[in-house]
Each structure stands twice: as C-alpha cells, then as structure tokens.
C-alpha cells in the first residue's frame, strides 16, 4: 500500500526539488524556545532534517545559520550538515530550513575533533572580505536569541571590542558593569602583544558547547552555529561547558600550535559568552561577568 503524501511548505519543497519522491513521513523531534525540529522521510527512504520557526525574524535567523553552515562545510574539514534550502511559511508566519539529516551517535574521538577544528580554523577563507584580512561575516546573525552584529572590520582587537564586548554591555545596560569593563575595553590590545599584527580571520562556529557537538559515521560533527570570521582562539569562549578533554587540546595544538598568551586570553573570550548569558538568563551570570572583569583588571594593574 502506497504511503500518503505529506504536505507542508518544507515537505512540498523537498518533494519538488530533491528528486527523492514525495515526503511520506514526518517525525517530530522536539522544540526549543523559538523553533521546532523534524525528520522528513521520502518515498525513496531519503531523510532530511527540518527546522521551522514563527515570527518575523525567523527567515533572517535561518539564513544566517545556513550561510554559517555553508562557510564551515566548504572547508571540507569537520563534518557539517549540508544545507539545502531556507524558505518562508505562508502568510508571513515564519520560515523553515531544510538540511541533510545526520544520525548523531554522540561521543566520538576528542583528539580527532581537535584536529578537525584546527584544520577548519586554518582553512583559506571563502568570503572575499575575509580573504582580504577583514573580520566579520556576510550577514548579522544570532548567538542564542541575542543579535550578533558582524559588520566587517580591518582590526581584530577593534572588532572584538565593538562588535562583541561593547555590544553585549550595551544590551545589558548595567552602569556598574560598564564601568568595570571600561579599562579592559580601553586596553584590549594588552592581551594580544604576543600575536600583534599576525591574527588572521578564521571561520568560527561561534557557539561551540557540548550541545552543538556530536559524531556521525565515526566523524566529529558540529552544528547550530553563530558563525563569523575571527581570531581562532575566540572559538573557545564556551569551553567552560564543552567538556573538551586533554586529548582534544593535544589534537588541536598538534595542528595549530598554542600561542604564548593563549591561557591569558581565555578569560577575555569567555567574557563575551558570559555577558550573553547574562543578557539571556540574568541571575548568577552577572556576578560571573563581574568576577572575570575583576580578574582582567588585576592583570592590567600588575602589568603597569
């Protein structure tokens, strides 16, 4: 008995464009605060991962995700789901994204993940602005639900000060936090003396924590990015909840050697994500951000 055809904006696009016949099965995987996820299966047995979201911002968020995934996919390094399409839901009710479905297995080799991330960071940029040494991305995107501005800039320290730290501080609107941060913003170059003038744009996942890392077919997989071109070390700002092992770091540094002040910059790159969590969730993240800023200020004082 032939299965009934399933019709929805995403299912119809798959049926009309991917050559695998009708979509005959829709499996709901779950939902987050802003999107719902599904597996769509066709007559031919092909499976596709679909996300849908309502609201006026959904198309822009999915386009940002799609461009980020493609930029990482094009490095041909760590496994990235291939994106097929971003489309609109009827009557401006939102948008959907269709991508390759990967059977995630969890776990996987930490050493290989480290090596593949290093190769991704070392890959030649595909965007002409990044090729020219600029930092940013083709579109603004989001980190969680927070807008992430990515307008191109020539200087990494300036980009990180304005597009990352000051942006989050402005969103937070906490006068005490801004005052505590001002010496760090004013003296940001202090943390880059070992690599001044040598920072090149690397494609970054941008939100790499344990929930966005897995494996499939024995290969490491990363997904759900907040992608931009930046300093490779900025990738590790979420490592406090990523669970990277010693084998991971050994694998990474085998391919991309550790810079002298790498460890001193970890607080600086963690700060962006803690500020973002303070904007998203409040609570103890505010005090964590203050603690990091106090440590950074102490480093400045000791250097004087």
UniProtKB/TrEMBL annotation:
Coiled coil: none
KW Calcium (keyword) present: no
EC number(s) recorded for this UniProt protein: 2.7.1.172
InterPro entries attached to this UniProt entry: Fructo-/Ketosamine-3-kinase, Kinase-like_dom_sf
Keywords tagged on the record: Kinase, Transferase
Catalytic activity: N(6)-D-ribulosyl-L-lysyl-[protein] + ATP = N(6)-(3-O-phospho-D-ribulosyl)-L-lysyl-[protein] + ADP + H(+)
SUPFAM superfamilies per the UniProt record, alphabetical: Protein kinase-like (PK-like) (SSF56112)
Entry similarity comment: Belongs to the fructosamine kinase family.
Transmembrane segments: none
GO terms of molecular function: kinase activity; protein-ribulosamine 3-kinase activity
The keyword Kinase appears for this protein: yes
Protein's name in the database: protein-ribulosamine 3-kinase
